[in-house]
UniProtKB/TrEMBL annotation:
PANTHER family associated with the record: MANGANESE EFFLUX PUMP MNTP-RELATED
Transmembrane segments: 6-28, 40-58, 70-90, 102-125, 131-151, 163-181
Cellular compartments per GO CC: plasma membrane
Role this protein plays: Probably functions as a manganese efflux pump.
Keyword Membrane appears in the UniProt entry: yes
UniProt key word Ion transport: yes
Recorded GO MF terms: manganese ion transmembrane transporter activity
Lipid bilayer topology: Multi-pass membrane protein
Location in the cell: Cell membrane
Organism annotation: Aquipluma nitroreducens
Protein family according to the UniProt entry: Belongs to the MntP (TC 9.B.29) family.
Protein name: Putative manganese efflux pump MntP
Length: 187
């Protein structure tokens, strides 16, 4: 898989964490750097390791799904991207976050924002032989996006949230279409 594709997938996946981070910045206007880093680390670790779990599960079934792997990747990425776009239309008041510095809250947010990454990891099993590079890129991109989201939440408010999720969803859909087209043109 191309480096650019992995980077774009990482960016697309990080938008859920970015949106949660913006809300965290809104809820904690006096958050300190190490508190923000704690939130970002949790989000990044879950976002990075969920694709690994999905990839491991998908690889164990590779022979069963190989004939339709491109359709699975396209379907999962399109569903996840569409879900992100639809969720972006929900008002930020309805998506208010409790104190993200509490361990239960940050764990819940980390799992919730990374479920999509689990499905992406499953689709990775159809197109990637090695996942380590993708896991590292996803983790680093999510950490940076989360730190920026907290900062933007503190400074600008919820206006950017909606557009970030729409962009992330669109990126995932485009990558799904790219995988499908590449496979159909080759075969």
């Amino acid at each position: 898989m191309e480096i650019l594709t992995v980077l774009l997938l990482a960016i697309g996946l990080s938008f859920d964490s970015f949106a949660v981070s913006v809300c965290s910045g809104l809820n904690l206007p006096h958050i300190r750097f190490f508190q923000a880093a704690k939130i970002a680390i949790f989000l990044a670790l879950f976002q990075a390791f969920m694709p690994l779990i999905g990839w491991l599960v998908g690889n164990s079934m590779k022979s069963l799904i190989e004939p339709v792997d491109h359709w699975i990747a396209f379907g999962l990425l399109s569903l996840i991207g569409g879900k992100m776009i639809i969720e972006s239309l929900i008002s930020s008041e309805e998506r208010e976050i409790k104190n993200p510095l509490h361990i239960k809250v940050i764990l819940t947010l980390s799992v919730a924002t990374s479920i999509d990454a689990l499905a992406v990891g499953f689709s990775f099993s159809t197109i990637l032989d090695k996942i380590l590079f993708a896991v590292v890129v996803i983790g680093v991109v999510t950490f940076i996006a989360s730190m920026l989201g907290i900062l933007l939440g503190k400074k600008t408010g919820p206006k950017i949230n909606k557009y970030a999720e729409i962009l992330g969803g669109a990126i995932l859909i485009i990558i799904g279409v790219k995988i499908l087209i590449e496979h159909l043109l080759v075969n």
